[in-house]
Design a protein that fits this description.
There is one protein chain. By secondary structure, the protein is α/β, with parallel strands linked by helices. The protein contains twelve helices and 17 strands. The strands form four sheets. The chain has a nine-stranded mixed beta sheet with strand order 3-4-5-2-1-6-7-9-14. Strands 8-17-12-15 form a four-stranded mixed beta sheet. Strands 10-13 form a two-stranded parallel ribbon. The longest helix is centred in the middle third of the chain and has 21 residues. The chain starts with a strand and ends with a helix.
Length: about 350
Amino acid sequence: MNKTHLVSGGCGFVGRNMVNRLFKNTNDRIIFIDDLSVGTEPSTWLKADLNKTDKNASFYGDNDRLVFIKEDFRNTLHSLNNNENHFQDTYGMEFDKFADVFHFAAIVGGRAKIDGDPMMVALDLSIDAEFFYWICRHKPSRVLYPSSSAAYPVDLQTDTNAIALSESDIDFTKMGQPDMTYGWSKLTGEYLAHIAAKYYGVSVTCIRPFSGYGEDQDLTYPVPAIAARAANKEAPFEVWGTGEQGRDFVHIDDVLDCTLLAMEKITDGTAINIGQGQLTTFLDLIDMFTDFAGYKPEIKTLLDKPVGVHSRYCNMDWVKENLGWEPKISIREGMRRVYERALENKKANEQA
């Protein structure tokens, strides 16, 4: 076995896609941790057979290359910060240092979670503080810290002042206010990444994904939820707010491609945008999905629902010029994939 990687939050949307990508493209061991409070049980999405279970760990695939540990990552970090050889002593795994560490563990959710329980979301601060404390002592080969487009100042995302957000619009010497406690926690995580790189010599890459989506995203997020409602031919079609709010939707496959490339080239904690660089409103999404479904319903606006900032999209010039990367999956192609999955799910539910 060549290397051992760690994926926290490995059963969430981005985490499980990364786990499957690493399993497919390497011969390495992947340890992934999730308490399944939001994440999905791995037996439903892993492309490998279960070999055995030991304590709270499940071993999958050839040579037990996939190891799932059901645990709150904060408990894992507590164990690691008290015993650097926690995995070796507890589960009998043989390795020295982690190669790549992907830190997806977070209190996450859609707009209802960000606006509805901001103090719970603020627990991300404790998760990230313990995480960076550990990596500064463990010194893995490379670290990925996923920040968020929510870290950008909200005053650049209004209906009267919406711009394509550039990496330079976040300046730690001159701060704007990010989006709720989620934005603050991610911005703090970026700052800790800079400290880890500058003062501890850790190789860290930060990404700011915009509105990531994909076929296996759960229905608490708007893209799969809208697709499912279109597959059911909802009429009238409900939209939160006016529907004129815009986001920069980017497919999960493009997010992973850009992330892995960035980790090869960025080591100093620099944060990069990952998006299409294109603003798409929720009305645009509804129009696209109902076009796939072959009908044009009346739109019913729900003005009492949380909507977040008015317009959030990114400038991808830095990534294009410095990494030579552009997204491969167009909005329409990606959304059609999501819609086709929604149709498959609808038919499966009808037959159940």
